[in-house]
Amino acid sequence: MKKSALAVKRCKTVSTIQKILGGKWKIEIIYYIAFEDLHRFGELRRQIGEITESSLTKQLRELEADGFISRYDYKEVPPHVEYHLTKLGKSFIPVFEHMKRWGEEYLTEGE
Length: 111
Hints:
This protein is mostly helical. The chain has helices spanning 12-21, 26-35, 41-48, 53-65, 87-91, 93-106; strands spanning 69-73, 81-85. A two-stranded antiparallel ribbon has the order 1-2.
């Protein structure tokens, strides 16, 4: 079968990044852990506001599985769990900084 002239080769790197960070809240979660010093589940939940507990749990687990954050359970009652960026997660900080600068330059006009 002949390939269509319109077929475009997908960029595997971009596709992989989208799969990892494509969750509705993942970029926001990483941002708050990195820049707002929010590390506990309840802090993140209150900050985001619109996210459900189950969605936050799912997104945190996926970010942990993908190596962006680590989870530390203090084994206390009531439960005390904190999330921190891993080396991989910290390596994403310059990307955030660039996105923020870009957004301030191009997306805040007319507000």
